[in-house]
Backbone:
């Protein structure tokens, strides 16, 4: 290799460009995985909708430890404090799941 | 080549060399910053994926659900309420449903038991499609259950083919498992035990004249709010939930205000901004000497500012790319395992989520604004201070 081309290749900018090209390749693979996963998810979406309709479900089954995180849509915001007078909310999932929005889950028309 | 572009390429070259000279310091900033972005992006990817899943899966939820409150708690709904609701113009069908929780003392798991009349539910005839094993029994049969995959595992671990549950009077009821839900529906059915409505009534000792709640289906979806208001007026002690309210709940339930998790993430971000400020504002004698030499060589303040800008942009950009890539891998390949303990808490039963992280431009822009912009803002003043170092004062320190 000639001294000139050697000097050109050793420019930090070229290392950066090479690094960006590698990153682009990694992201292309991740993106193709994302498209594949998304297509698979959308193709099976109808099964989840059938289960929801046939069983009349209102909530996702992610946390099953407390009523208000198992069924947040069908619970009151005050449910965490309902176990007994002076009860405090103590389940770990209560820190991840926000309480229902003010007015979102209320008696319609009240 | 354009002179301005060449100048900037040379400045980037110089900046990269400068970053490399102080690689230990810059690497520590980059790693800490990438870690913060990883946490923020993971949280955002998880919450958006869960929200999308909820909105997509629950779009076929009952149009209106009626519950009854007594002493501030949900209680049984008299079936008479159903007759009153059915008489409201526009109501297509009212289906009573029995459901509740069952605590399994052996495993410590909370199970959800649902008793429905599948013949009266929408798409009830297609429920077979959601089963990985077995099938839905013929109408009128009793003593059967359809279970989620976790329930199946619990039953198998007990070495029995039947699911045995205790009634409130501690008498035992046994059910044959006739079907197991597919893994695709895990996010909805993992802890479910579905049985005939009569069996559920018997299990929970609920009166034949009552139900847990009523699912209401209307002829015209535009009329749902009006009908819901009419139901609320006719039944003062009822809580009336519409499908849109359920959707609204899931649009915020994993939101940024969801307490502890977001507070921790934002605290980490604030700590990092302070760290970045501290690192960038402390001008070392070596840096001061470097700036002085550059100025003697004819560099202007704007050129030094450009170097500082590129330093910040390269570190922040690198951290952003590394953090977001790591977050995607964490959520998509590892089911957000770092957040799992917060998401599921003490739950014994929890599904395999198989999340699809949201890769929308808006999401990435939000993460960028929450992380990179505060960093750039925190480093801009120190960068300006370093650029205006007077040559003579710096020379006196050499």
Residues:
């Amino acid at each position: 290799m000639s001294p000139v081309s050697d000097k050109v290749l050793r420019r930090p900018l070229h290392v950066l460009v090479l690094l960006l090209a590698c990153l682009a390749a990694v992201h292309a693979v991740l993106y193709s995985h994302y498209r594949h996963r998304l297509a698979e998810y959308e193709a099976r979406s109808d099964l989840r909708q059938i289960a929801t309709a046939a069983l009349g479900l209102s909530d996702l089954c992610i946390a099953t430890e407390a009523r208000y995180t198992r069924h947040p849509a069908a619970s009151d915001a005050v449910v965490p404090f309902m176990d007994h007078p002076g009860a405090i909310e103590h389940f770990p999932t209560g820190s991840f799941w926000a309480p229902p929005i003010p007015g979102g889950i209320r008696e319609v028309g009240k | 080549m354009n002179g301005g572009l060449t100048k900037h390429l040379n400045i980037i070259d110089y900046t990269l060399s400068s970053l490399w000279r102080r690689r230990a310091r810059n690497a520590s900033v980059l790693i800490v910053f990438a870690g913060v972005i990883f946490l923020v992006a993971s949280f955002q990817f998880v919450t958006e994926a869960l929200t999308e899943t909820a909105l997509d899966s629950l779009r076929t939820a009952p149009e209106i659900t009626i519950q009854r409150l007594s002493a501030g708690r949900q209680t049984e709904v008299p079936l008479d309420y159903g007759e009153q609701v059915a008489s409201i113009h526009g109501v297509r069908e009212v289906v009573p449903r029995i459901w509740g929780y069952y605590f399994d003392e052996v495993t410590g798991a909370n199970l959800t038991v649902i008793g429905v009349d599948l013949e009266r539910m929408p798409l009830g005839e297609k429920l077979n499609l959601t089963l990985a094993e077995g099938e839905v029994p013929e109408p009128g049969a009793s003593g059967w259950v359809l279970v989620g995959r976790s329930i199946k595992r619990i039953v198998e671990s007990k070495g029995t083919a039947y699911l045995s549950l205790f009634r409130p009077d501690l008498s035992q009821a046994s059910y044959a498992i006739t079907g197991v839900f597919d893994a695709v529906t895990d996010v909805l059915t993992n802890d479910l035990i579905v049985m005939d409505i009569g069996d559920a009534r018997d299990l929970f000792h609920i009166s034949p004249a009552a139900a847990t709640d009523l699912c209401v289906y209307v002829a015209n979806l535009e009329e749902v709010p009006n009908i819901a208001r009419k139901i609320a007026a006719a039944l003062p002690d009822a809580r009336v939930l519409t499908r849109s309210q359920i959707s609204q709940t899931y649009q915020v339930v994993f939101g940024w205000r969801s307490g502890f998790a977001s507070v921790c993430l934002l605290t980490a971000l604030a700590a990092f901004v302070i760290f970045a400020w501290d690192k960038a504002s402390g001008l070392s004698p070596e840096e001061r000497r470097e700036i002085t030499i550059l100025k003697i060589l004819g560099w202007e303040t704007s050129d030094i500012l450009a170097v500082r800008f590129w330093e910040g942009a390269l570190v922040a950009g690198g951290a952003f790319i590394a953090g977001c890539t790591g977050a995607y891998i964490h959520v998509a390949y590892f089911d957000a395992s770092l957040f799992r303990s917060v998401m599921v808490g003490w739950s014994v039963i929890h599904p395999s989520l198989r999340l699809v992280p949201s890769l929308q431009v808006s999401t990435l822009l939000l993460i960028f604004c929450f992380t990179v912009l505060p960093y750039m803002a925190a480093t801009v003043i120190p960068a300006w201070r370093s650029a205006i170092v007077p040559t003579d004062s710096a020379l006196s320190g050499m």
